Amino acid sequence: MAGSGFLLLAVWLAAAGPAAPRHEQPAQDEEAEPASAAENVKAGAGVAPVELIPRLELRQSFAQLPGGVSVHVTTTQLDIQFLDRLLLRYEGRLNVVKTPAGQVSGFGDAQLSAIGLLAANPRLVAVVFGGVVLDSASQPALGDGKTQLVFGAGAATKPLRWWLPYVLVQEQLSVAGDAARPDVNQLFARVGNIVFGPGFAWLSLTLDALVDFQTEAGSFFGRLEAGRLLVGRIGLFMRGGTQLLGTRQLDYTTEVGVRYLFRLGSGAARR
Q: What is the pTM of this model?
């Protein structure tokens, strides 16, 4: 975690450099507040999970698990927006699992989701989402062996121009699949805080709670992210996290990613 923290700090410090190129605007325009929270959450270059911004994103993550097991995951995410109130998302994963007994690699379970804008006012935005995790892993060890439904809701507010707290609640349960594999019935909650800095940079701290009704166990995780919009609509970010409480499932995880935004939120040009 010390190395991950150093990398995160380095990204944040680099944000003090020249910002992404943009047209000069009058000073009054630079200080203008977006008209609504729906615009506010778009000002973070795709940072908050309640944003409806079409994008293409590539992430590379590594997780060290107990017992000498490690997992490398390459994730491709594509978000397509419809009518300013609906976002369709596809996530595909390429997994490499290393265990003391050997290595397994191939495609993991893919996920299809829809995120809809439920309500918005000048200081609050709320979304609902639903989707399906497909039993599509190329090998049993790379997936859950279950088709799963995912549904939930999220909300974000912006009490200060540089601060965006949000909350997400999600239920995930299996509805079909291999009868010999464990069923999935999990409740997930996330509380996040995003702080925006100079040069289109941000820091994000998230706390995650996971309740597994199938095993009657709970876990608590923490994660820190640093990122910056580098050139135009291209953003780079790094994340690091670990498990804080609960039956040990994770030693630590690190992730780097790059995203291309097909368009910026209307507030981004004012940051």
A: 0.81
